[in-house]
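Interim report, section 4.2 (structural modelling).
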Amino acid sequence: MSQYQENATIIRFEQLTDTNIRLTLQTEEIAAAAKPGQFVMIRTGKSKDPLLRRPFSIHQTSSSGRIQILFKVTGRGTALLAHCKEGETLSVFGPLGHGFHIDPAKAACLIGGGMGVAPMLFLAKRICQMKKDTDTDLIILGGRNRSEIEPLLADFHFLDIGVMVATDDGSYGRHGLVTDVMKTISLPDNCTVYTCGPHLMMKEVFRQCRKKKIECQVSVESVMACGMGACLGCNMVAKNSRYVHVCSDGPVFNAEDLEWNL
Amino acid sequence: MEFVEDRDPFPDLRVKIGTLELQNPVLTASGTFGYAREFANLVNLYRLGGVVVKGISLFPRPGNPPPRIIETSCGMLNAIGLENVGVDRFITEKMPYLLGIDTPVIVNILGDSIEEYKHLTEKLTVVPGVSAIEVNISCPNVKKGGVAFGSDPDMAAAVTSVVKENTHLPVIVKLSPNVTDISQIAWAVQQAGADAVSLINTLVGMAVDLKTKRPRLANIIGGLSGPAIKPVALRMVYQVARSVSIPVIGIGGIETAEDALEFMLAGATAVQIGTANFINPRASEEVVEGITDYVIREKLHSVREMIGALDTE
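Predicted structure of the assembly:
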């Protein structure tokens, strides 16, 4: 597995909402090597403060050597990124971590909530490339409201997989949570659920999967320093009270392997 | 016969740590470079002066619960809790790779008691490919009420002696900055036979979340590293270098060749790159390149001219 450190030019900066931003970056080697579910570490500026890179899952890649990331401004690092401009460069390091495991013989259900929608697009595109028939596949996306979710949908609608949407305030799609939508559908037995989103959402997705004995892969997040297994700072509790490291063992795990305190 | 210009394009960057000869003064700091393999496709390992691998204990340690790290102004706090695979698995799983990287491997060891340091040394000293031992004395001595070995000159000396008695390898003692007088500790370990000292380990610190009214680290306190600690590290290296005659290895916030050379002026014979590896995985090799350029540009006979050359007049 090869990783690259690239000075990536910002090709496009899109302010999707007050707090949500989509960046398109020219990163030839990373774009070519990336797999769905992997992430990159980005330096948010040139100074020593903030010191550490920030992890972002890859939203999608293009054959023209670009990657996209999607993020919400939540702290100092993302606030700095929110002020970058097209044409400027950012130091991008990746692709990192283990991504989703795709079995083309199985049906797929992708469930993304909030910024957890980010890795789902890359995954859905790869699934469409790998499978002849995606009739039994499904994507469920959730957000707070219409303005959060609507700008992200165009890319998904290009794909040959059905998309269902839920919003917390009912301003778009179904009123409620993605996990409410999940309850209303019957997933095929031979199905893998892929999910990314807030912890409580993923916990509920896994609870439903476990009840139906359906495989569930989760993409989790953590504070990280290095993103490559050196600092050991991103541990989380796995089954049998063992620790795993999000950057090198994940960020995608089989949900069964983690501790959810269900 | 063809005329060959009699000038070596490769400047002399060699330094000596005890009997260990390094091709250049740049090492990686323990706990920031994994077991080197993690960096193999980003760094030409053979170009480094050496690598210091993640601290090893007699038995595997799971480390602390999350969150283990938090960013602070120009630095970071960590409370990893010395997570490591233990010496036996280190020898069987990590050493075979390290044996082939063609750069000296320095193994960092840590223990809860003098006996643990002794057993670790006995096991590692016979392992092919181990070039030196770096002794982390910042750990609490369980038998002495948890006081850190490194905070007491007698205990620091006792650990140093037991390691020295059980190995022919150069022994580097890594000093804790969380003491009243670091020179006193450095003197004590020198008298106990240490071949070199490395400093500084992290400074104990803490961060608080006002919103949740909780500490930001599960362990409550952690070790501060990064550019924020560089002035403190430089001062301590300067003081220690003036009070001992063994080589001093400078550590603390070094990101660039300029940083490294400043430590050498202050008295360091070599340096270790730590937190910078997390931000720029190529930092250590870039420091080597930068020092090379400096020595050529300044027309130095060797990088050793820099050691302790600080002008305080």
